[in-house]
Amino acid sequence: MTEETAETAGAKGQDPEEINRLARQFDAGPAEDENAIDRPRPGTMAITLPCGYLDEAGELHRDVVIRELSGEEEDIIRSKGPMIPRFNQVLANCTESIGTIRDEGGIFRAVSQLTSADREWMTIGIRRCTVGDKFEFEFRCPRCPPQDKVPPKRMDVDLSELEWREMPDPSVRDYLDEVDGYAFAWHVLDSRDDAWMESVQGKVRNALASAAMLARVDKVDGKALAREGKQMTKSIKLLQRLPSRVRSKLRRLFLEREGGVDLTLKVECGHCYAETEFEVPMGEGFFAQQET
Ligand SMILES: [Zn+2]
Question: Are 140 and 44 within one domain?
Answer without folding.
Answer: yes
